[in-house]
Amino acid sequence: MQTAHSLCRIISKRGIMSRKEAAKQIIAGNVLVNGKAVKSPGKIVHASSEITIQGEKAEEKSKAYILLNKPANCITSRHDPEGRRTVYDILKTKEWVFPAGRLDYDTSGLLIMTNDSELADYITSPKSSLWKTYVAKIKGNIEPGELRQIESGIMLDGEKTLPAKAKVLAATGLSTRIELQIREGRNRQARRMLEALGKKVISLARTAIGELQDAALKPGTYRKLSQEEIALLKKER
Fold first, then answer.
1. What pLDDT score does 117 carry?
2. Catalytic residue among 104, 116, 121, 214
3. Predicted TM-score (pTM) of this structure
4. CATH 3.30.70.1560-classified regions of the chain
């Protein structure tokens, strides 16, 4: 039985371009499916269909997996209307890749860039059981009862977060470093959980995605994932 999806999703799954970019090409009439023009991005087609974009065959690309250490004050998108630095200003690669999840402008840390949409969907899904680890520096102290609140769940947007893990790494009285581990992918979740407790976040960094980590990777640099690391991420699904 052949798998069928929307045309824009199939183009994205083949690692050619994003669904948004594919939709633009489809609407413009630049996409043929089995020799016939299709102008509806949501058109359901078989995954094995022959697709051409502007006269070129849209064949599945080799999968690319890149680990980037995003610096703070950098946008996790291709373009920014305000002209701020983006992760694509750092990344110099010929392959089309997209971020598997986002880190907000002020947050630094590990980010996977890939054209493997299935793996990206797993990493970013709110239902994913993949732990993401963050280290936050907050102003002042955090009480044991507040750590337990994080662990049992915090109300965000009228819905309680899934149970998390939290522990103090260091405290000076003026500030505290906390390690947070969460399994969801809600927007700015780690930062918002702390802010919901009235904490001022001084800095926030993602230090691990599942078991994947690299303390030696400097901010603003990136590298390809090894086959062992790719297998490790896929194993956690």
1. 84
2. 104
3. 0.84
4. 132-209
